[in-house]
Design brief:
about 210 residues, alpha+beta, Beta-Lactamase, 2 domains, six-stranded antiparallel β-sheet, two-stranded parallel ribbon, about 30% helix, globular
Length: about 210
Amino acid sequence: MTVAIDHLMDSMEGIVFMTSADGTIMSIGRSNWNRFALENDGAALLDGRGVIGRSMFDFISGTDVRDIYLGFFAALRSGAARRARLMSRCDSPAVRRELWIVITPVQQESVVNGFLVQSLTVSETARPPIDLFDFQAVLERSRRDKVLPILAMCSYCQDVRYPSGSSERDGTWLPAEDYYHLGGNANVRVSHGICPACEEQSIQAIAC
């Protein structure tokens, strides 16, 4: 059965993985997963290395964002919804990428025993590189310098809250391009969260 599921996921569109009921990643659609990893300097993740056997929540930054996904799982597990679907971003320095994330419960004898998570690319647009999206470099700088200002970034749309260090009350959410036009830079510690617009979208993400 496991081999059949692996072949099925390999044939599906987009980046696909399956979790257990508690969110542990059990298997991936290898062909598209590996292609995406190689195109985005993720060779260490080939064939799901470092991913399979771990909770998907280990890879979701920001407590409020994890809480939203936990809410999706709870609603799908209880039968209150049949799927969750929301628009998101997955940018690299030189590419703006929009995608749909779809979470579907996997049932056996009317019991939800896992979830199928599928990321479907809607658009990819080349642009001049934005070093704020070189997340490894940003992380390394923040490790070296603990006094860098904190820049909030929305985990969904990847807008940032300007100026860096601002609070929810005082800051303004805007695209990274506008952040740079206003004098921002990548010498920050990125804190992932969710902007008000995407928080509203998440409420609409559950399909009954």
